[in-house]
Design a protein that fits this description.
transport, 22% helix, OB fold (Dihydrolipoamide Acetyltransferase, E2P), alpha+beta, Elongation Factor Tu (Ef-tu), domain 3, transmembrane helix, 4-stranded antiparallel β-sheet, elongated, 374 residues
Amino acid sequence: MNASLCHILTIIGLGLCTSFGAESSEDPSNFISLRPEGVRNLGIEYREVEVKDFERTIFAIGTIREIPSNHSVLSSRIAGRIIDVKAFEGDQVKKGDVLVKVESRQPGSPPPVIELKAPRDGLIFTSHIKLGEPVEPANELLDIMDLREVWATAQVPEDAVSQLKPGTKAHIRIPALGGVNIDGELFRFDTKADSKGGTIGAIFRVPNKDNRLRPGMRAEFSIVTSSRKNVMAVPREALQGDASNRVVYVKHIEIPNAFKRLPVQTGEKNDRYVEIISGLFEGDEVVTTGSYALSFASGSGLSLKEALDAAHGHEHNEDGSKMTEEQLAAKKGTEAEQPSAWTQPLTLLFMASSAILLALLIISGIRQAKPSQA
């Protein structure tokens, strides 16, 4: 075995011994320990740091629209009056359901009655009729919309349009539904641009199987323009601090209900994630929900040393590293060498002064008592 190989093996061996035999040190000022109820009160949740595809996005606002081809109207082929209404605004109907009955104006005893049936599945969006109301063939009686798929139209700045093409993905947030996020795919652009706003409508197809999305709802768009692979990123809510001093809170791997405050260097960000250039490792568990509140938490009063001592059953230094045999021996020697409170010079001087003062007071009292007795 040559000298170079021996040197390499020695380095590897030392590294293994270090990693398995020593406990890492950390900054005690960045350590936070909470009681279990404190963790629950803050509603703390975690997310594991992972390497992912990182999307570059542009932001836009817009609205939900119906798809024109999914809008139908119910009307009567004959003139007459309405004698029965079986469906109203907000009702879901199936194709072929009888919705309205119209009594014809043609003579008869009784006059002929025509049943008007739903032309398609959908939601009755608008009703224009009342019981007993006269109708004409030109009248629109009910508007029926199939909302199982809708359009979401984003007002995109004109200078960003060149970055988009049919099939481009977008993450669409709907404030009216509590911030629900839905993915959509670019279908086409509006036929006209908004010359005043400098935007053009980008139309995304959006599934809506539960019919929660309704025309006119406001929507916020994060439109994906490109993507980078193998980027370490954390949710945006995990990041705290100001622009020059970004930090995250990481779940302590050894101590329950404890956290480490770690400074990080950040890169790009999108609507959901922030790129982490340095400061974290894949697999770290960062605090997401409750991260902001944790930055103001006072903790349970346990220091890093106290928490590690309790967790491991042996003594640690203030920085969290395990005390060596030499450090333990030095600590015991220092404690043994320290004089007791009764032998320290200042204590002895105080005791002697007190004794002399007490004696003088006694003598003075005796002298004052003798003349009075005489």
